[in-house]
Each structure stands twice: as structure tokens, then as C-alpha cells.
Amino acid sequence: MEFLILLFGGAMMGLGGVLVRLAGDVGVGPFGSAFWRMALASVVLVGWAAAQHVRASRSVVSPPPEAELEPALEQPAPVVPMWFHGWSRSALIALAAAMFAGDLILYHLGLFWTTVANATLESNLAPVVIAVALWAMTGIAPSGSFLLGMGVALAGAMLMIGAHLNHGTALLGDICGLSSALFYAAYQLGVQQARQRLRTLPLMAWVSSGATLALLPFALLQGHMLPTAPIGWLWLIGLALVVQIGGQVVVAHAIKHLHPGLASVGLLMQPAAAAVYAWIILGQAMGPLQMAGGLVALGGIYLARRAAA
């Protein structure tokens, strides 16, 4: 059952690229959709965190300090003293917010310039980036299986990009998709460290609010923030509630109860679902080279995730 829940969560997250493109069809630019994605999600998360705080404050029996810390320690973060030693909680939250804003800027640009399938799969190389970053921080080399998976994943990504080598805008979109993985990896590392000191829900409320503020000037400078048709608000609300909150929460719940190897397989649902949605809804069919590259990249991501688990 948990595996099916994970697949469902991945399928919801896979809708993100399509909703961004649909919002773009009614006048919302990539930075505008990124801003509303986080702003609308922040309203829900801040309200949720505030309600949780009120309930806790009204509780007759106050929990012991150990119990208060436990939710933030559900999944202990790797120790990375070389980079994060001495960082305050506020600094970690600011880092996570800024990196997530950068990830969304590049990912949403990629969605406009290349295919949804390419941009989504390329951004899902973040686990590979994280493992390499931890290698650099800790000096502990990854296993041969991980290096094999990383090589396969990168080879698949190059195959997908190869179809766009003679198309400047599409190639630029692929570069944005790959670059977004760097920012998303940095975001995940920041969140992992911050979760050592703060509960998940307040942390996500702070990070989402910070990312909203970081995205606002980009959205204002680009313009095209408001949809030209009422249905555009449906796409933006879906992006915030279904993808940003619903998909993330469902996936986090399922991963908590699954073996890491099995979870790594289920998480591949997101890029796979994104490709199917883009084909059915947007008519973005994948050519033979892109399809082969996508399958190779998915296999490499699976091998790398499983080896790093």
C-alpha cells in the first residue's frame, strides 16, 4: 500500500511541468508561475503551522523537550562539518529558501524552452549531485555501483540533449534543467541540516515564505504575473496545492515507511508521469533519441539512488 501511495505522490508531482505550461498559455510567465506556486503554498503552510502551534500551546500536558525535538529528527541528516559547521538555523533556512527559488527559476525556464519530459528528468538528477557534494564535503568516496549509476544517468541526459544540439532555445532549456538540479541539491542539503533543529512543518513554512520573497523581484521584473483567463488561477492553485504541498507530503509519508531501494524505484514515477502528461495534454511526443535517453537516464538515477541509500 505504501508503495502505491508513493507512486500516487510521484504522479501528482509529475503534473508540475504541465501546469506551468498551461499557466503560460494564459499569460503567466515562468517566474510568475514560480512565485504563485510558492506564495499560495506558503499561505497554506503558514496557516497550518500556526494552527499546529495553537493546538500545542492549548495542550494541558506539555510534551518533554525530547518529544519536541523528535519530529525534526525523523531522518537524521548526514554530518557535513566542513561546509555547515557553525551555521545558525536562520542561515540554513535562508540558504534553503534561496536555493529552492533558484531551482524553480531555472526549472520553470527550462519548461518553457525545452520539453516538459526533458526539464523534469534533468532536474531529477539532484540525488546524483547530492552524493557527489557529500563526497567532496566528507572525503568519503561513493561506491562503484553509485559511480556506475551516475555515469549511466549522465549518458542518458546527454542523449536527450543531443536531440536539441541544433536548436538553440531548446538546448538552453536543457541547460536550465540540468542547472536546476544543482540548486535543488543545495536546497535539499540545507533542509536536511535545518531539520536537525526545527520541526518539518514550521521549517517548510519558513522556507516557502523565504522562497516567495526571493522570487517576487524576478516575477515583477519579468511581468506576466497575472493570468489573462480565470482558468489560469486553477492551474496556479493546482501547482501550489496538488504539486507543491500534496505531492511532497504524500511522497514524504510513503518514503518514511519504505525500504530505500524500493522508494528509489517509486520516485522515478515523477519524470515518467511528466512525460506521459506532456504527451497527452500538451502533445509533446518524445522522439526515439529522447525516449532512449530518458530510459537510460531513469535507469542510471535508479542505480545511483539505490547505491547511495
Number of domain modules = 1
Low-pLDDT segments: 65-79
Q: Give the overall pLDDT as a whole number.
A: 80
Helix-strand sequence = HHHHHHHHHHHHHHH
Helix content: over 70%
Q: So what's the overall shape?
A: globular
Question: From the alpha-carbon coordinates, what is the Rg to the nearest angstrom?
Answer: 19 Å
Report the major sheet. none
Q: Between the first and last Cα atoms, what is the distance in angstroms?
A: 21 Å
How much β-strand is present in the residues? under 5%
Number of helices: 15
State the secondary-structure class.
Answer: mainly alpha
According to DSSP, the number of beta strands is 0
Give structural attributes:
309 residues; mainly alpha; 15 helices; globular
In short:
The chain has one domain. The protein has 15 helices and no strands.
How would you characterize this protein structure?
- The protein is built from 15 helices and no strands.
- With 309 residues, it is mostly helical.
- It has one domain.
- The radius of gyration is 19 Å and the shape is globular.
